[in-house]
Design a protein that fits this description.
The structure is a homodimer. Chain A is mainly alpha-helical. Chain A has 6 helices and 2 strands, in the order H-H-E-E-H-H-H-H. In chain A, helix 1 crosses helix 2. The structure holds a DNA duplex.
DNA sequence: GTACAAGTTGAAGCTAACTTGAAGTCAAGG
DNA sequence: CCTTGACTTCAAGTTAGCTTCAACTTGTAC
């Protein structure tokens, strides 16, 4: 398949497919200078897409697929911890904004001049 | 105060303070070519820091402080929605990785070749 | 008068995952 | 023969929030 066919079947843009090949995520042979992909490139892209959706970076995916990581499950467990941290951080931001909405200040500048007791933003 | 003093008192680096001034978050007058900040720059930085912690971008903070947004509460409500979406997305990623850990495949490449029924990654 | 710390500007670098653009190649169809 | 469309490479642009660098100036201490 050419890059255009891979793009159509995978739903990616041709430029993205080329990019993936350039960073070593996909392999292609050159025929008259043009990339030729085999059928399993599609399966590989499905895999990559699933891993991306699960928040793995392309570099992490590349290393896992290359077998640099002895156990991909370890990478997954580490990723779970990362995601726990991310969720906690975002939840804290949510709480901070909620608190902000309970602030009695009329203008935001007012907050900066108030004491800790009075203003939500300064807590 | 000079930029160095503001940096020390705010806990930011001098380069960050200069950057903030360059994008219009802070104001400073020049005395012999050097930035001179007034006392309320510290309060403003406290405010900026709190807003950053609540996930507002510097540009959003700048607009809110400039009064371009008639009601900062509206911005906060919009931010809450954004954070809800972010939390949901991260939770979904967490679920995807958890599911992945339940996959029976020995190698990650194996996943790509299995049917939907068998392999977690393909669901 | 000189050494040194701290200031100045503007531009470039950093991260990730691509996209876009320029300039050129190549094969098929009319 | 010529056009069209799909491809090629390489470089640069995009996002945010700074940091770092180079080359220079200024203020203070000795």
């Amino acid at each position: 398949m050419t890059v255009g066919q891979v793009a159509k079947r995978s739903g990616l843009r041709a430029s993205a497919v080329r990019y993936y090949e350039s960073i070593g995520l996909l392999r292609a042979v050159r025929v008259h200078g043009r990339r030729q992909f085999t059928e399993d490139a599609i399966a590989r892209l499905t895999l990559i897409s699933a891993a991306k959706d699960a928040s793995f970076s392309l570099d992490e995916i590349r290393r896992i697929l290359a077998g640099d990581r002895p156990d991909w499950r370890q990478a997954a467990i580490a990723k779970l911890k990362e995601l726990d941290v991310a969720i906690a951080r975002t939840a804290a931001q949510h709480a901070a904004v909620s608190r902000l909405l309970g602030c009695p200040c009329q203008t935001i500048a007012e907050c900066a001049s108030k004491t800790r007791e009075l203003c939500s933003l300064n807590r």
